[in-house]
């Protein structure tokens, strides 16, 4: 009996020690404003214990990583002070390669946001103040309840310009709660219970219930009056996640990942020219009437390599319109090769009519340099380098003789700096800027 008692107490003590160690491990991870250094031994523990973690997978020799580091250090205290704090952590992916492989890191720096342990690619800016503004979205409630005009104004102002904002006026919260959760990573959602007629005039709706979508960075507003069944609500939300006419660059291409609609792409000389701005207004009108398509535009001055993949350059008769499904082919419309006439609204209508009637010509996305830049914007420049290396190695192996076999060794690490034509502060983060 004495032996059984000793065994019981030993087992109880061991269990308590294990539970105590687990509790200690969990409680050791706190959002105190410092940047955590994670490795193979503590990564999973930190990710499991903390709700929101932005992880920087970096390499000590990477130039971009060195420039990013002080921005993350500056952002960490502000993010830690949020009601639902966000922690910033770093992993030396060059040393802890198993973690890099596990999370698909193919270039440096790679930022991933872990939400309750689930990773997603971070697609936001990398300057400290903009990074903080961007990440606040992920710490916010699924749907925020607003009880006054000032509360609505504060909510819209605090939301910033990175994500669209949805405000339901006189709308039952239960109608959009599930959609607020589903699209939380892409937009802000709120419901206003008390508001004045002045606010109705400000947001340009004349009856309730109404769901208003705002695109602060594009100065766009859309109003939905129902029906408020989930199917119709979701269609409105999905279609208004993007502006009516979207400028095409590295970041906006990524935002189209989950959108299955084809892109009506208009190529101009320079997006900032007055004649291009007038054309963009026409494209917005066309987009309002053709919500089954995404309307985008790109200037040769802004992204020449991308424009060249569609056969457009400085010698091409512009503007040029094509329909692209983001694969290796695109469509032109017979008789609408360019829209450079005086009545561009009619020409855009004729292009869309010709596309829907099937009067199209199939073309291949082309241009070796341009296509590389295009691919890299989706899969990462590191992956492109790997593919090029593999192809080159295969060619060398085929040429090698049996007497003089090919010997392959490890080369020195190189800090591959790349550049981008997008100049906006908020679009600093680009796949092509990752370091191998």
Automatic annotation (TrEMBL):
This is Putative thioredoxin-like protein. GO terms for biological process: protein folding; response to endoplasmic reticulum stress. PANTHER family: PROTEIN DISULFIDE ISOMERASE, PROTEIN DISULFIDE-ISOMERASE 5-2. The chain crosses the membrane at residues 371-397. Residues 407-436 are annotated as: Disordered. It is found in: Membrane. It comes from Rosa chinensis (China rose). InterPro entries: Thioredoxin-like_sf, Thioredoxin_CS, Thioredoxin_domain. Residues 407-416, 426-436 have a biased composition (Basic and acidic residues).
